[in-house]
Queue: 3 jobs
Job 1
Amino acid sequence: MVEVATDDARRSLEQVRAQLLDAAAFGKHLNAAQLENAARKIAYALRVYGSPD
């Protein structure tokens, strides 16, 4: 179960990273909904990685 959550958290962070790199590289702007979604993904990953095994 922990392994699945860790994989999901890693995938979430990779998605946020890709989105931010794309925005930075091509001068794109992220709207409020996109930023809120990215924040949710980061918060999820922090909960997963911060939880004891």
Job 2
Amino acid sequence: MSTTYPKATTVTIGYDQIEDRMFLVLYLQDGGSRKAYISRRLLGMLLKSMGEKLTSTSPTASRTPDSAEVMQMEHIAAVVNRKPGVVPKTTQPESAKPYYATEAQIQTQGDTLILGLKSVDTEPIAALALKRAEAHQILRMLRDQADKAGWGLEQPAEWMRPMEYGKGGD
């Protein structure tokens, strides 16, 4: 990621029915905030890329014959243990400068996944550094918002499908 992004520390996720777009309000280190609108197409690509990056960088999944099962357990553990963040009081979401995201870049640095968003004119919107568990939680929240919006997106990875119980032997 050679682009320099404003650094976000916190994010809230929602859906705007009028825009028919998902949005991320990114709270920046400098006290400002930016609202990134994401299209259905970009969200589909983002979910897939994040899922692939998490799988390819998993220290456990690469050493097992069923990486999807390992990734599903990691995903469930991250989502179940989610602790809601605190939205900074210095900035109100309504005052966030709006951008239409057209590109998402994903990179890893050690055990951290960096998500960077760019706008229509390739202006950097913001980047968010996520630990593995946080990346899983963001994936889940994005997926939940897409479902609430009725976007009908395919599951980007087998391990993101909800677990089905009672499918064992006859």
Job 3
Amino acid sequence: MEEDIISRDSHIKYNLESYLSYICECVDVKDLLLNLDYFTGEQRQEIKQLVRENPVRATQKAFKTLMNKDSPGLFTALLQAVEEDYPKIVKLLSGEVVKCDENYRRIVNLFATTVINEVQPQELLISLRKYNVLTALEAEETMKDEQNYGKTRAALYIITNIHRHVEDWFKYFLISLIENGCEHLAQILDDDMVQKIKAQASYNPDNENTDEEKQCNDVKEHIQNIHHKVSVDTKIKNIPLPEKEGYTKLQNVHSNGDIAA
């Protein structure tokens, strides 16, 4: 049994090392600190300090700290810690194929200003949550940003985080734009994919009283509850303004093909 754990840990660690750069751009280090007990108090403090300067480097430091530890079951615990919110990262760590999304991230980055200036964050959130593109915590953070800094800041938060969790995030982002009256923005991003989406039987904007509509209503109610909670909370202070260099930072993952172990 112990040999099986060691073997599984080695497999996960190998995949983590192989795709560390990409994984660090997706996983929020706060989730690692919250769900794993393998960091010392000093290590946690150093990582939290680094988050303020460079979140991606902070995540990288956290992962490298874990990789330097000799603790059976650690990487199995890591897999379980990200299982709920990062399904595409779980696939990578498990050795499964994940479609490369580098081009999609570049497209979103290229047209980020246009998208941010036109979308309504609260409405977009309902669709994005329905497709699990953003987590409940990220939805709450978006609402806080809109409450304290306005729609532009909230839309920026959405654009910055939509790539993190699910493999087909770009397709769901386009669907969300279409569902919220921004088909022209979806067409700017990828008109070919928009046409495919509209041709699919699973996408039918006139379909009423379906399970999908019920799910959408449930998510809408959740977003409204978050909005009420944020409205009565004290305004957040000392949140850094967006970087002047651009809306997102893109790094090369793989220039060709899929991401796979």
